[in-house]
Amino acid sequence: MTAACSRGLLAFAAIATLSTGCVTSVSPLIRPTISAKHMQQTVSFLATKEMRGRRVGSPENARAAEWIARQFSDLGLSPAVEGSFFHEFPYGRRKGRNVAGIVEATGVGGSGKVAEFVVVAAHLDGVGDAGDAHRPAADDNASGVAALIEIARAVVAMRSTLRRNVVFVAFDAEEVGLVGSTRFVLDEIIPSEDTRFTIVFDMIGGKFFPWQQKTGIAMGTEHSNYIRSTVERLRLNRATPIELLGTYVLEPAGPLLARSDYRAYRKAEIPYVFFSTGTPWYYHMAQDSIDRVDFQQSEEIATFALDLLLEIACNACEIDFIKRPKPGVLDLVQLHRILEELLQHQTEIQLPERKFTQIGKMKQALASSIANKKASRILAQRALMLIFEAAQHSEPKLARPSSPRARRWRCRRPASRSRVGFDRSCAQTDPPWRVRAYFPHCPPSLHPPCQWTACVETCRASLQYGFAHPCNRGKVFLQLDF
Looking at the structure, do residues 39 and 99 belong to the same domain, yes or no? Predict the structure, then answer.
């Protein structure tokens, strides 16, 4: 049995022994706290109108990256990229910049440097403004960057207790296909073979539905029994409940179209936990502003993540990785609960009656699978797509400005079976502009905010599950050939 994170008078007050034989838990008396006030200051800077949505390759995006690098430096982090905080990579004709700093562990009792790493990450870019419409990207993902910086502040104060180095990364170019995180892992900025665990934040300040209480979602624990048991133990008696969900539920089009920066780490077979609160109705819209960020909720999710980080960084135990986890019945239980809430709040969701009939039937199908203890991957994915559709139609009345942005997506049959094409027209600009994107290639000239990955996933879901996604108002004329 090992005594983790011990040095001098900093002894553990609460010690929990896991089945692996490792000792964990750090006394709350010696652990710095997360500050909601500091998190609000970070979001206030990143989501200002002057930052113009922080689109990748823009001067405002570069300004955000430089500001985060200064925060890392002021906190005492060391540069993680050959003496620099910046990892530059090409994105078409543009360049993206990840920002990475490291808190180096000194080993037990200051015995020397250690070789293992734990990564904490959040993407810094947003979708950018659309013409004169400012899209602040406060929840997506200034809230995640705020958590990143606050946890870095806490970890620096506990540097002497670490048994693994902790790397903090603000990824760029997430909104255009998870480019920054993919390049960071492929370029081996931090050796993958020495990386033991990753935490990813993406949208932790919002509410999936307007009526929901404070809630956080932790995804990815199905890939490690050790991480799962640790998260299960830590989430007990939390002011903000932390719900568990398998990431496969988010990916009806397969792992290639993952929803956030955990994808590169999963592919490298590194255990991870992805923290989020879901994509609400104002996702990628002008209404994603600072007034919609619940900083108390963000603070409590970041505090939970800090506790989990210390369990891993202050402990030398081996962490297993399950490459192809089986779908879990607990995922169906969570989805069944959400569908039940939807039926209870029908008057607050602008969906036709037939959709609620589908939700009711799906709820019954989930209940049957739960009773038989048979988890179904496709059933869970279909249920979540219904939930996503309901979320996109749950905006409160008068929530939009007087001149709403037109959101018309229409998928068309491609000229070639080897390519999937999309047209988008936006009535906000004068004259309206049209964008065409193709899968699997995303051309550098693609006009943001057209999200090619989202559109591919939308059309696939529409064909496979037989309903119109809220971003796809028209009939689907698409032949997918993956």
Answer: yes
